[in-house]
# Entry
Amino acid sequence: MLAVLHSLRRSTLLPRSIRIRNLRLLSSLASRPFSTSTTALDIVYRRYGSTDAPSRQNPPPTLLPDPVSGWPTPWITAEDIERYMCVLNENGWDIRFSAAHSKPTKSHPSRVVPELFKTYHFANVEFAAKFAEDVKELMTEENHHCVLHVADTQLTIYTHTHSARPALGSKNAPGITLRDVRFAMLVDLLHANGANDTGDS
Ligand SMILES: C[C@H](O)[C@H](O)[C@H]1CNC2=NC(N)=NC(=O)C2=N1
# Structure
């Protein structure tokens, strides 16, 4: 790494501005511990500064929401979005509005709802299918049910909470709650823990 720094400093091929920017970039990389891959766990820990190796058994105490009890569950608040969504988004989760997975009710046979979703990529169909089975087990453990869409070597997970309500509203309305945030993080931890054997790309 240092050799690269020296060669860049000497190279006159690059305009001075790019040379300096590259040097700053490289020196910052050189000073940081070299990580081979950034998994969900790394991002979570880098953000919260824990040093011990995380695992599903001991997820980061600062970030993973506690299990939520009772229904309807309040929607996530603006503070929740600030605290959780940036990390989830860094880990590949996004939000969309769709009626595809809403649970039909008498008053709403079909309803557009917000849902968290993420697509995982695997080296082959078997790994994708195995991970889908692991996620189904997690659904049972958490008593929280999401939609899995397996397409060849890709697995997309959609989650929202059917029995939910706006934090301060009175009527129930499906939405994204801390149940979904917790579930998404547990799936990422499951994936990060199993990354070596699912061969995900
Ligand atoms: C009675 C049962 O515990 C509830 O219906 C649970 C089951 N799993 C669930 N899963 C999801 N995604 N939303 C819910 O509101 C929900 N409710």
The longest strand covers residues 113-121. The two ends are 26 Å apart (CA to CA). Residues 71, 143-145, 161-163 surround H2B (CB under 6 Å).
